[in-house]
Amino acid sequence: MTIEAKKQIVNLLAEARDLSTEELVRFAIKRFDDKITFATSFGAEDQVVTDILRKVTDKPLIFTLDTGRLPEQTYKVLEQTRRRYGIGITVLFPDSERIEKYVNSYGPNAFYESVELRKECCRIRKIEPLRRYLAGLDAWICGLRSEQSPTRKELARIEYDEAFGLIKINPLADWNTQQVWDYIREHNVPYNTLHDDGFPSIGCEPCTRAILAGEDIRAGRWWWEEPEHKECGLHRKIK
Ligand code: SF4
After folding, report:
1. 3-229: what fold?
2. Fewer CB within 10 A of the end CB, N or C, for the chain?
């Protein structure tokens, strides 16, 4: 991180220290205006952020990544969200030539074969479209929470995203699961019905399964891998 970026984070953290979640979102929108965007995958946390964003602004800049391997339930909640909040949601797609090359070289489900092939699939279907979209923006908002996984323990409400070179705002960083679901019920927020079937964290269909009682929240994501590998590169430094 550059010295300027470090200073910016220190200042932002000081300014936002006592802000509530909604105030933090309002602060971020005011500060970054049309240079901030919100990344949603329509999980429970993201739906809470969308609801808050819509209270703060009429025209939130929201986008999602359609990897081509999403479960049907996710498309359903995408449409419900568009209608409920009267907002546009930009859908990003991967480069079709890159997908063709990968699938024709390794097969349609090569992500089960090795961490490298799994990461390559995530790179093509998620990271590359995301990198194209974030270029030119100053900040993005994410629905991450620190208790979601070992890789997110140090999560701050405002941090510098080294991988994409911009500010990252995590308004729900210190929320727990109960708070998320209390908010959803209290505000009648539309949510992905897979959550009712034991999926606390939802990604691509072939890489997500339901979890058992007592399992970690992210145990159903890339369940065949060790916990320290369980990120797709969107939310950690890319090596
Ligand atoms: S989550 Fe699975 S299907 Fe989706 S991009 Fe990553 S490896 Fe590919």
Report:
1. Rossmann fold (3.40.50)
2. C
